[in-house]
């Protein structure tokens, strides 16, 4: 799965989830995926903007999280995933990567 596949998967899933009322950002390697949940629906783009919560990881770790091979809490505790900003929003992100 490459970054375009990851982007498409997040975009498809975001369409099925209620807006979060904030901007959330994934940084996967050197690529950015922004989810703007401040409007009537979630808008997914590759714009690098300020966000209330930023989750950083690499593509392999993201794929393991999405497939269920890696527990999100263990990924954070082991340093494979870094969270900056609102932890409450980070918890809501799980619905976007399943």
Order of helices and strands: HEEEEHHEHH
Q: Which CATH top level class fits? A: Alpha Beta
Which architecture name does CATH use? 2-Layer Sandwich
- Tally of contiguous helical segments: 5
Percent of sequence in beta strands:
15-25%
Q: Major sheet: size, sense and barrel closure?
A: 5 strands, mixed
Kindly report the average pLDDT value. Answer: 91
Going across the biggest sheet, name each strand in turn. 3-2-1-4-5
The CATH topology comes to Nonspecific Lipid-transfer Protein, Chain A
Structural class computed from helices and strand pairing: alpha+beta
Q: State the end-to-end CA separation.
A: 14 Å
Helix content: 25-40%
Summarize the structure.
Helix content is 38%, strand content 24%.
Describe the structure.
The chain is an alpha+beta fold and 98 residues long. It has a 5-stranded mixed sheet. The protein has helices spanning 3-14, 59-67, 72-77, 87-92, 94-97; strands spanning 23-28, 31-36, 43-45, 53-57, 82-85. The mean pLDDT is 91. A hairpin with a 2-residue loop joins strand 1 and strand 2 (31-36). It is globular.
Question: Layout of helices and strands, plus pairs?
Answer:
Blueprint: H1 3-14, E1 23-28, E2 31-36, E3 43-45, E4 53-57, H2 59-67, H3 72-77, E5 82-85, H4 87-92, H5 94-97
Parallel strand pairs: 1-4
Antiparallel strand pairs: 1-2, 2-3, 4-5
């Amino acid at each position: 799965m490459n970054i375009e596949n990851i982007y498409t998967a997040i975009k498809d899933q975001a369409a099925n989830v209620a807006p979060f009322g904030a901007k959330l950002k994934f940084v996967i390697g050197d690529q950015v995926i922004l989810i703007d949940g401040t409007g009537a629906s979630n808008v997914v783009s590759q714009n690098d903007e300020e966000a209330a919560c930023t989750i950083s990881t690499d593509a392999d770790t993201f794929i393991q999280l999405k497939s269920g091979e890696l527990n999100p809490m263990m990924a954070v505790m082991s340093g494979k995933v870094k969270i900056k900003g609102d932890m409450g929003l980070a918890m809501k992100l799980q619905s976007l990567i399943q």
